[in-house]
Amino acid sequence: MLANRQYSEQMTSPKTVAIAVPLEAELVDQIRAIDPSVTVLYEPSLLPPERFPADHAGDPAFQRTAEQEERYWAMLGRAEVLYGFPNESPEGLARIARDNPALEWVHAMAAGAGGAVKASGLGQDVLQKFRITTSAGVHALPLAEFAALGILNGFKRSAELAQDQAAKTWPDLRVPTRLVNGSNLVVSGLGEIGLETARIARALGMNVSGTKRTIEPIEGIGRVTDNAGLSALLATADAVVNTLPGTAYTEKLFNRELFAAMKPGTTFVNVGRGTVVDEEALLEALDNGQVGYACLDVFAVEPLPQDSPLWNHPRVMVSPHTSALSAAENRLITERFCSNLRTFLDGGDLPHLVDTVHFY
């Protein structure tokens, strides 16, 4: 009984939230309005200006004075809760985790923050002292829309059309495009992004199957399997969308064998993580026609190296890991954070926790 009362007192005691990344003042006010017991520390002069909506890292040219740098870290050191990783970097997370023993919870701006947490180099002894949540789900709609763009680009031969337009060529032989309606889509990873992609695909008339760690029926999805059954699914696909995070278990999942299992001319879209794809195997599949078109928002190494053949491949669309961005992102992340903050204050279970063992 005493332990329960102490836990309740801990969760209902006044909490301090520090805003560690650029954020509009009106959104900060939304956080303040969640509970009168919450103190929100927000000093815009200590944060870099945004170059575009939801520019969480801010202008790289921004530099704090020595006095501002001291104030910034002192502000973060007074908080139990952080909105964003300090300086939006793994190094910033590592520093505050070590310097602030009162830290209880950090909310990441990214949908997949496992890689950044791993890059922080923090050991399990430190990571077990506080929780890290992600903004997973906030980016599901823009990512799914981008996936739909990739599918349509592949089926409607947008790469060839762009090349003809650039050359001012009106071809004598006008090749027909493919119908999306009635075609088969395989979604690798039926989480929030995958399910939103499936919803849009079904609206276009596609038949959708996919993979999930836990095999269970999903309304509107034809077949659900785990990664062990992915190869068989790919043999039926006209288009494939990967939404999987980058972990030790998904690294180079899409290898030569999986690309070989696809039907010739398959459209491939990646909005998950670049490490899930063996890029050398993808290039081979593009060159031999197994993959007809690839729409890629993520890459194994980012920024994509200048000497990567993907830049100039005639049937590849390169997007610089920006497909999740939208003008509404800060608002949506703040709404998610406010909901989580209410749960945190009430002693509930926070959603979308980073797995600090497998880093996803």
Automatic annotation (TrEMBL):
Keywords: NAD, Oxidoreductase. One of its GO terms (molecular function) is NAD binding. CDD domains: 2-Hacid_dh_1 (cd05300). The keyword Lyase does not apply. InterPro entries: D-isomer_DH_NAD-bd (IPR006140), NAD(P)-bd_dom_sf (IPR036291). Residues 151-323 form the D-isomer specific 2-hydroxyacid dehydrogenase NAD-binding domain. Coiled coil: none annotated. This is D-isomer specific 2-hydroxyacid dehydrogenase NAD-binding. It comes from Pseudarthrobacter chlorophenolicus (strain ATCC 700700 / DSM 12829 / CIP 107037 / JCM 12360 / KCTC 9906 / NCIMB 13794 / A6).
